[in-house]
Amino acid sequence: MRPLASLACLLLVLVCSGCGGTARLSVRDGTGPRPVLPPPESQLIPTVNVATAVGWPDGAMPTPAPGFAVQAFARGLDHPRWLHVLPNGDVLVAETDAPVRPGDDDGLKGKVMHLLMKRAGSGHPSADRISLLRDADGDGVAETRSMFLSGLHSPFGMALVGDTLYVANADALVRVPYAQDALRIAAEPQQVAALPGGPINHHWTKSLLASRDGARLYVGVGSNSNVGERGMAVEAGRAAIWEIDAATGAHRVFAGGLRNPVGMDWQPDSGALWVAVNERDELGDDLVPDYMTAVREGGFYGWPYSYYGPHVDARVKPPRPDLVAQALVPDYALGPHTASLGLAFYTGTLLPARYRGGAFVGQHGSWNRRPFSGYRVVFVPFANGQPAGPPEEVLTGFLDDAGQARGRPVGVAVARDGALLVADDVGGAVWRLVPARP
């Protein structure tokens, strides 16, 4: 019966790919400090519109905005998702994918979702490694690539504090000793703290950011479902940012109600912690916008009971009006279903001065909106520590003319020389964006 069930799921995927609605608003309508939030739609079959992953043809690259140039810093990587730049300029890249999650495939919906993710370029066996890329001659291309650290479990976030490198696996925060200019770490990773994992681990990525003094580590832990449909017992400790004591491993929830908090960074002017959050699905093609926000300590941001403050999600039972009343409104919407994952504030000097202090955001791209949204890297200008204008496209061209995904941008980071680095998991590359030469 298993082959027949797989065939039925495949047929359902093909049928559903043409199902659902169409957006009535533009992505720009769902962007900024006051996004348009239309009434939620009740769809018998939610929109399924997946861009089939095909990779980059020979010689092809993303399209930079006017005034920029792009080149491949590294190619041929195995699903590169996240980046971390070391003080000596070496670049660490997490080559990773979802861990084996038997509980996440339960039921017909789970199996269909798994097939959809494979079609979108994910759901393959994880390389489970961190590679080191070194550009010793400064030509913008990494001529050295080494397998830096193995023995990991779907690694994602990385943070260097002194001579200790921390890595957020799908189920644990671990650490290893680091020596400057090392090409490989042979030490076994040691656990600092367990993180929510288990057989479901629906949002498995665990982002990581160290405090300024290195004493505390902040980990983004996504929810185990779309809107709590698996029951809230499996959501314990999830949909939250954890604060972990680096010395003892003791932790607390720093902020909650964040469906899938991914990219995190310190805003250089205000010093505030900002995070990019993926919001919920299946309320229509125009809901709910993903967002980035300054994170208030002890704050609650609504998931799953509401979105954008008081907007109640009627699907969640039982309701919690007490928590809805506490829900904070995010600072800045990034468009519906854009899957905004990467977040990095610009602190370099290579780009023009207007970029300093603003945020670059990697938008991985939609699978449940028609037409597509995301599949690009944008820049949001900041002034006095707050967003100060609409997002500007800086890197596009990830979709071809047939709507297939040649690449999908994920993590973004600022290189030591001030270039912007972009991890492209479907394209197997790290792209380097710099000002165009006159």
Folded structure, characterized:
It is a single chain. It contains three helices and 30 strands. It is mainly beta and 438 residues long. The strands form eight sheets. A five-stranded antiparallel sheet has the order 1-21-18-17-16, with no helix packed on it. Strands 2-27-24-23-22 form a five-stranded antiparallel sheet, with no helix packed on it. Strands 3-30-29-28 form a four-stranded antiparallel sheet, with no helix packed on it. Residues 1-16 have low confidence and may be disordered.
Task: Quickly describe the structure.
This protein is mainly beta and 438 residues long. It has helices at residues 2-16, 107-119, 321-324; strands at 31-32, 63-64, 68-74, 80-85, 91-95, 129-134, 144-149, 158-161, 164-168, 172-177, 190-194, 206-210, 216-221, 240-245, 251-256, 260-266, 273-278, 289-294, 306-307, 311-312, 332-336, 340-345, 359-363, 376-380, 382-383, 386-387, 392-396, 409-414, 420-424, 429-435.
Structural class by secondary-structure content: mainly beta
Oligomer: single chain
Q: Spans with pLDDT under 50 lasting ≥5 residues?
A: 1-16
Q: How many beta strands in the DSSP annotation?
A: 30
CATH superfamily: TolB, C-terminal domain
- The total number of structural domains is 1
Rg, nearest Å:
20 Å
Overall mean pLDDT: 93
Topology (SSEs and partners):
Elements: H1 2-16, E1 31-32, E2 63-64, E3 68-74, E4 80-85, E5 91-95, H2 107-119, E6 129-134, E7 144-149, E8 158-161, E9 164-168, E10 172-177, E11 190-194, E12 206-210, E13 216-221, E14 240-245, E15 251-256, E16 260-266, E17 273-278, E18 289-294, E19 306-307, E20 311-312, H3 321-324, E21 332-336, E22 340-345, E23 359-363, E24 376-380, E25 382-383, E26 386-387, E27 392-396, E28 409-414, E29 420-424, E30 429-435
Antiparallel strand pairs: 1-21, 2-27, 3-30, 4-5, 5-6, 6-7, 8-9, 9-10, 10-11, 12-13, 13-14, 14-15, 16-17, 17-18, 18-21, 19-20, 22-23, 23-24, 24-27, 25-26, 28-29, 29-30
